[in-house]
Amino acid sequence: KPGVRFTNRIRCGNYTQIFTAAVEVSGTDMAASQLGLADEMDYQKQERLRELLRDLENTTINGGQPSANPQGNSSIRRSMKGIIQHLSTNVFHTGDSGFPTGTDLDETMINYVLRSVWENSNGNVDLIIVGGFQKRRINAFCADSRSYAANDTTFTNLVSIYESDFGVCRIVTTRWMPKDSVLLLDSSRVKVLPLAGRSFHFKPLSSSGDYECGELIGEYTLELKNEAAHGLIRGLSTS
User: How far apart are alpha carbons 224 and 8 in whole angstroms?
Assistant: First the structure.
């Protein structure tokens, strides 16, 4: 009989966060013909929705929770924990013992983290998230090996897929990634989910004057499974 092996299951969790924005349009604007618009109220809804999606993206990456009362109370709003705050196992800072030397992002650093994730979990990193500066660093990985034919008229300076021994990774840029950091994710283990019936929607509110008003509201949280299946590099040079 082989030895019995036990694995302790741990229930992880996160809180939902409410995202909301007010919309108000005067009676005059509702009645007037707007340049390029069929309906001023619909336009304002779309603008506020874009802002809320921006806030949700930012919070998904950088969101944090207060150490006390993370569930929220009368003076502290409930907030969800973002990807960066979830990670602990494969978090590397430039200068750490064993981590490749230097502060400029290079292939050695990327492969070090990919290998660490592969060894510490059954994760399959398939997504690298960076800001604009580190994306240019990645583009430079193959700068010395590009070649062009005599009839080529287009110069391409772009790396959108990185293939390594430990997986094929799509490279995505976001404005909200810290400038000195790189995220390496197993996208199958990351979801942004609304509370049941609370995805972004418009809620009309009563008007007390010559205007129509309401609010766009949604309640979401981040579900991140097996934090050891993801990686983070911090402390990279930004100039």
Answer: 18
Q: What is the extent of the structural domain holding 98?
A: 17-144+156-234
8-state DSSP, 68: S
DSSP lists the bridge partners of residue 188 as: none
Query: What's the pLDDT at 36?
Result: 81
Tell me if 66 is assigned to some domain: yes
Is there a domain that residue 10 lies in?
no
The answer to whether residue 12 is domain-embedded is: no
DSSP-derived secondary structure for 8-65: ---------EEEEEEEEEEHHHHHSPPTT-S-HHHHHHHHHHHHHHHHHHHHHHH---
- Of 87, 86, 132, 137, nearest to 110 by C-alpha is 137
* Nearest by Cα to 230 from 126, 147, 156: 126
How far, in Å, CA of 51 to CA of 176, rounded?
13
Confidence (pLDDT) at 82: 96
Amino acid at 174: T
Specify whether the backbone of 8 is left (phi greater than 0), alpha (psi in -120 to 50) or beta: beta
| Phi and psi torsions of 228, nearest 5° | -75, -10
- With 90 as the cut, is the pLDDT of residue 146 above it? no
Cβ pair 219, 16 in contact under 8 A: yes
Q: Is residue 135 part of a domain?
A: yes
Q: Would the pTM count as exceeding 0.90?
A: no
